[in-house]
Specification:
The protein has helices at 14-29, 60-69, 93-98, 100-104, 177-180, 263-280; strands at 4-9, 33-38, 53-58, 77-81, 109-121, 127-132, 135-140, 147-153, 156-163, 165-169, 194-198, 208-209, 215-220, 226-230, 234-238, 243-257. Strand 5 (109-121) and strand 6 (127-132) form a beta hairpin. 21% of the residues lie in helices and 37% in strands. The chain folds into two domains: 4-108 and 258-280, 3-Layer(aba) Sandwich (Rossmann fold); 115-250, Sandwich (Tumour Suppressor Smad4), CATH 2.60.200. The strands form three sheets. The chain has a six-stranded antiparallel β-sheet with strand order 6-5-16-13-8-9. The protein has a six-stranded antiparallel β-sheet with strand order 12-11-10-7-14-15, with no helix packed on it. A four-stranded parallel β-sheet has the order 2-1-3-4, with helices on both faces. The protein is an alpha+beta fold. It has six helices and 16 strands.
Length: 284
Amino acid sequence: MLRGAVILHAPRSEGALAFANQLAQEFKRGGVATAVYDAWAEEAMPELDSASLVCCIGGDGTVLRSARLVVPRGTPLLGINMGRLGFLTDMSPRDTFNQVEKIIAEDWRVEERIMVRCDVRDPAGRNFRAHGLNDIVASRSLPGRPVYVDLRIDGARLANYRCDGIIIATPTGSTGYSLSAGGPIMTPTEHHLVMTPVSAHLALGRSIVLQPDSVVELEVTSDSGAIVSIDGQEEVPVASGVRVSVRASEHITRFVRFREPQMFYSDLAERLEGQMSSAMSPGA
């Protein structure tokens, strides 16, 4: 039985906050200790240390934020879609209320997804480490100017890219920025990262699917440096000469699922079709 839960909701969304409070009441009636937070709150969230479930109410951004917050605990996440896209959310608010008894009984399937880790090392010896669920991106720091990145995979030099950016995506992130840049769609439970350059000039412009234990080394050679972003939500400016090492993380994200794995393909088709219809509709 569920011992404790933390509910994280999207900021600036009255609907998400209202639903979070309603769900908290349902959990408390079932004897589950529950705390509610804005997913982007700066305050400490001590209940995360003892929670056996984290509910993410919002869109994909809320899930991505929550996945990083639970590192290194590995607490299962339940994504509840109140956003527009919902690649990472499994349930609607109505579905959630219909499944409350199963949620409290922990009568669910757990789906594991790999994460990606980056280590930033600058010549001064300062180090930075971060983990993401979707991707790590090294991109230009100034609009209209390319970023120069010397790229090695497992120690072997691949190219000195002149491009808009380099994306290292997980299978989960393969339907995000990487897909927009021409990268392949991967089954989310795969264990391979994929490297995709963005608008590469006079260099290999194709994606490369990496071995599970591969390490990608990026050295920024642009005079203006670059921006390294994690899941498109955290940004770290890096200067020329800084090296960024990217690999599969030692941590994983666990999702609570009530549907079967093969639903991924039908959901993918539905969501991509919905995105195309929305983009082509008048006034879009």
